[in-house]
Amino acid sequence: MNTAQAGTLESMDCLVTVSEAPQGTGVKIQIAGSSAARFKSAMEKKTAEVIASMDVKDIEISIQDNGALDIVLGARVEAAVKRLMGGER
Q1: Phi first, then psi: what are they for 77, rounded to 5°?
Q2: Nearest one of 52, 49, 46, 56 to 19, comparing CA atoms
Q3: What is the pLDDT of residues 11-27, one digit of tens each?
Q4: pTM of the entire structure?
Q5: Is the pLDDT of residue 88 over 70?
Q6: Interior/surface letters 57-68, b for 16+ CB within 10 angstroms, e for the rest
Q7: Domain 3-84 = CATH 1.10.540.10
């Protein structure tokens, strides 16, 4: 199974790990970290929006959050997916 990452575990950032999922399993999002308890639904929504805009259907996403802003989360998800798909390294 191929995986890719983007981000760090520094304060105000997040580490996003993405993995290929079997065809037809959909998008699975797992969120942990300092802001997860309060902002999990907003983070899931932002992640789902980025994934949908990239036309990705089957992927597993793990986010370790340390207070990342919405725009940072979106950028990290996009970068990790592009790396997984063979784009930016």
Answers
A1: -65, -45
A2: 56
A3: 999 999 999 999 999 99
A4: 0.93
A5: no
A6: eebbbbbbbbeb
A7: no
